[in-house]
Amino acid sequence: MAGQLTIDSGDTAWMLTSTALVMLMVLPGLALFYGGLVRAKNLLSVMSQVLGIAAVAILTWVLLDYSLAFGGGNWLIGDLSKVGLAGVGDTSAWAVGTGGKAIPELVFAAFQMSFAAITAALVIGALVERVRFPAIMLFATLWLTIVYAPLAHMIWSSDGLLFKFGAIDFAGGTVVHVNSGVAGLVGVYFAGPRIGHLREAMPPHSLALTMVGAGLLWVGWFGFNAGSALEANGLAAVAMMNTFVAPAAGALTWMAAERLVSGKASMLGGASGAVAGLVAVTPAAGASGPMGAILLGSAASLVCYGFVGSLKNRLRLDDSLDVFGIHGLGGITGSIGTAFVALPALGGHGGDAYALGHQLIAQLAAVAVAIAWSATGSALCFAVVKRITPLRHARDAEREGLDIADHGERAYNY
Prior knowledge:
Radius of gyration: 20 Å
CATH topology: Ammonium transporter fold
Largest sheet: 3 strands, mixed
CATH class: Mainly Alpha
Distance between the termini: 60 Å
Shape: globular
Structural class: mainly alpha
Number of domains: 1
Oligomer: single chain
Strand content: under 5%
């Protein structure tokens, strides 16, 4: 394969940069974003979980999951031909675009590895402030292999079921966001609510940290979306512009909705709306034009705001940091909405032969499969974890805070 392809140095440099940007989203972006939203007694716990999950994802990806996701195989899962990155060395290449261009396969593997890391780390936002560190590490190990790798294969591998069906998921609307959102929702069912949920105030201890984290997420998302073009070309430029405008529309829409409802627009609402816009445009980043991305970001922000601001409490759902409310629902909105924003009439890149009806069916199928696969697999993983080790802390430990209970240290010493 390497003899038939030519490594493009410009594309390789861009993909190296994009991979680093996605890891910036995880550490420190997500760690700070989540960390600021919890109470001070649980700050280190959340950051440690993000760090630990990232480390687990990196190792499992190299040892097994890259092969299951991108090895040869069938419509469901890859084979074991690339276990331990067998055959993926400094001379192996991964084709990009046309004309024999390629990037080193190690770079492609690393880029996809960073996606696995942030997807698994997103899940724990639904469960923070009550679950045990060892249980979460075990869950991440199982989940990445049982749930994430097969879904990535189905969507992004040329052998995959949904790839062949024609579903568009440019950078992870289903694989990353619907998947993590549904897994978080299943985890809430297994873990139960935090002590005092809906009875005690649980305000974020540092919205300043959260805003810094949100900013790092936005910056890193350029690697996430534009990097998914796999080349430094016009498609990457399209994805980059969409990654500017969709979160901007999402932030302003959320804040406007807050002001209409409560009379004040919060910083947390702006950050949440920006993330909702980023989530929604992820599957459509290469298919939408800027105007479509603006519409998609605004629509997803409204959907997520409606759930987070009202419906979640009515359902008594303790999705601590709104993983399902923002990533799950934002991913569903974006994945289905991709069929519409790809329309040439909206400035999309579907082409002259684009068929809205067929594409909408493909997008609905991808969302349905992602929800069913993630729900079933995540339930299996949580059930196995609970059989092996307790999932959550005892009441006294939860009251004291997970920083002490899990790690024997505090974020702030006065």
